[in-house]
Amino acid sequence: MGNEQLDQILNEVKNGSVSIEEAKKQIRAFDDMGFAKVDSTREKRTGFPEVIYGEGKTAEQIIRIIQSLKGSTNRVLATRIDQMKALQVMESVNDLVYSETARTLFWKHEDEPDVLYNGYIAVVCAGTSDLPVAEEAALTAEAFGASVKRIYDVGVAGIHRLFHNLEDIENATVTIAVAGMEGALASVVGGLVSNPVVAVPTSIGYGANFQGLSALLSMLNACSPGISVVNIDNGFGAGYYATLIHKNIHLGAEKI
C-alpha cells in the first residue's frame, strides 16, 4: 500500500467516514476470519477479485467469505459448488445466481454493467459431455465482464459442424477449446484461427483417456502454434486466462 492510499484511509478515519475496524482491514489488505484470510485488495493488484473455490468449504464458510468480498468488489464468483451447498448459501445471501451445470455461484452489484469490454471470447466445446467444464470457463469469463459466444458440440468426429461456426471463432479475441477423449479439437482450432487459443482437456473419455491425461498430453504436444494449455477440467483457469488476454487487448486498443 502506497503512502497516498494510507493517507486517504487515515483522513477518512479522522473525519468519521470510515470506522477504525474498517481502516484496519484496508491497511491489513485482508480480512482474517481464522479459517480464511480474504484478499480484499487482489482486484487492485491483478485486475480481478479473489474467487472462492467451493470444494472442501462448508456452506457457512462460503457465506462469510462472500459477505466479506461484497464489501470490497462489485463481482463475486464461487466455483465448484454442488447444488445442496448452493441452496444453503442462497438462503443467506441475496441476489446470487447459480449454474447447476458449471457449479458456480455469482453475485454482481446492481449498478455494475454486465459487459466491460468490446468484442467477445469464443468458448468452443467438443461434445455435450464436456459442457460442465465449458460452462465453468464461459461463466468465469462473463463474471469478469467479458462477452462470450458459446459454440458447443463441434468435435472432430463431425468436423463439418466446426467449419459451420468458423467465422464466429475467427472473429473472437480469444478462443477457449474444451475437449476430452484425445483432445484433438484444440489443435484443429489452433490451425484455423489467428487469435490465441486456450486449450482445456477434460476427464471425459473411455479407459485409455486416463481421466483426461491423454487429452492433456495431446494438447501439450499440439503442432499448431498459439495454444496454451490449462490443467484437466480447469474451466475456471481457462476463463480467467482468456479474460485477462481479452481485457488487455481492449485496454491496449483504448490507448491507441
Automatic annotation (TrEMBL):
SUPFAM superfamilies: N5-CAIR mutase (phosphoribosylaminoimidazole carboxylase, PurE)
Protein name: 1-(5-phosphoribosyl)-5-amino-4-imidazole-carboxylate carboxylase
Signal peptide residues on this chain, from the entry's feature table: none
GO terms (BP aspect): 'de novo' IMP biosynthetic process
SMART domains: AIRC (SM01001)
GO MF entry, a single one: hydrolase activity
UniProt cross-references to NCBIfam families, sorted A to Z: LarB
Taxon lineage: Bacteria, Bacillati, Bacillota, Bacilli, Bacillales
Cited Gene3D superfamilies: 3.40.50.1970
Domain of life assignment: Bacteria
Domain annotation PurE: ranges: 119-251
